[in-house]
Design a protein that fits this description.
This protein is an alpha/beta fold. The chain is built from seven helices and twelve strands. Strand 6, helix 5 and strand 7 form a beta-alpha-beta unit. One of its GO terms (molecular function) is zinc ion binding.
């Protein structure tokens, strides 16, 4: 097993991750409790909450009506009891390490809007799919079926000779079910995709937030950026029940974003937003395959 630790400390990791949410369990509308402002920040980060500029409630600890509505939308997306209060199931989902890509972008609830029932065609009959797309369904041009990638990190975490086969294997999963082929760009040539490890603010307006929170993120086509959080502990073969994350599992997920898929409501899908530490989840689910083939009309 390979395990890696950041060699340069650029910012202090948040050792508690999303654990701060635990002490808010049971909180509901009308309560004023220390830490509620952090819940607001969490839901804003993942697209569920937006206060008007200069709103008095944006940074206070009051559990107001707008926050209740945001919690209900979160519960709806994750198939939880839609109570609007922070029950144990909701808190347990919120504290899980996850992808940094928001569930809602520009007011579009991607996890719900991608849901459809297939009754004919190449997809399985009469099945409900839970995949989703980014707003306006961006995709790579029809004549752009061969994508190249390169590695560029601001923090050295994983040796290139270790990362290369991991990324190659992750791309192969998507190549097998789509029209795409992938290859590492030759030195000196431009690439369509850039993959690397970064910590904190790293130039893409989506700063990482320390250990045990957001693990990685990627952008919709044709931006082609895929970043791992260097503050996490990464492995090619993580041990169960440890705070270590599988490089390939996150790569397969983030490549889905690079190709245009949003998050899925299906918990067994690669494109589900969160993953347990110490676990391995590398194989595409039927929902992932339906999603990519629907997006590209395969």
């Amino acid at each position: 097993m390979f395990m890696f630790s950041p060699s340069v400390v650029l910012s202090k990791p948040n050792e508690q991750g999303f654990e701060f949410l635990k002490h808010l369990q049971g909180c509901h509308k009308g309560k004023n409790l220390k830490g509620v402002h952090q819940l607001k920040q969490y839901l804003e980060k993942f697209g569920y909450l937006h206060y008007e500029k200069h709103s008095a409630h944006a940074k206070d600890d009051e559990f107001d009506e707008l926050l209740e509505s945001a919690v209900k939308t979160y519960q709806l997306n994750y198939h939880l009891n839609v109570s609007g209060s922070l029950d144990s199931q909701t808190v347990n989902q919120m504290i899980k390490p996850r992808c940094g890509v928001p569930d809602i972008i520009n007011g579009t609830t991607r996890m719900q809007s991608g849901k459809k029932k297939h009754q004919h065609g190449p997809l399985s009959l009469h099945t409900v799919s839970h995949f989703s797309f980014f707003p306006n369904a961006p995709r790579w041009p029809a004549d752009k079926t061969h994508l190249t990638y390169r590695f560029r990190s601001s923090v050295q975490v994983v040796p290139p000779q270790t990362l290369r086969p991991v990324i190659s294997s992750a791309f192969a999963k998507w190549a097998a079910v789509s029209k795409f082929t992938f290859a590492e760009a030759q030195p000196g040539f431009n690439s369509d995709i850039e993959i690397g490890f970064h910590r904190g603010s790293h130039g893409d307006n989506e700063p990482f937030d320390g250990r045990g929170t957001t693990l990685a993120h990627a952008f919709a086509p044709p931006i082609g950026l895929f970043h791992y959080d260097a503050d996490e502990s990464w492995s090619t073969n993580p041990t169960p029940n440890t705070l270590v994350f599988d490089l390939e599992s996150l790569a397969v997920h983030e490549i889905g974003h690079l190709l245009g898929l949003g998050h899925s409501e299906e918990r067994n899908a690669i494109m589900f937003s969160s993953i347990e530490s110490g676990s391995v989840k590398r194989d595409l689910h039927a929902d992932d395959i339906q999603g990519i083939q629907t997006l590209y009309n395969i």
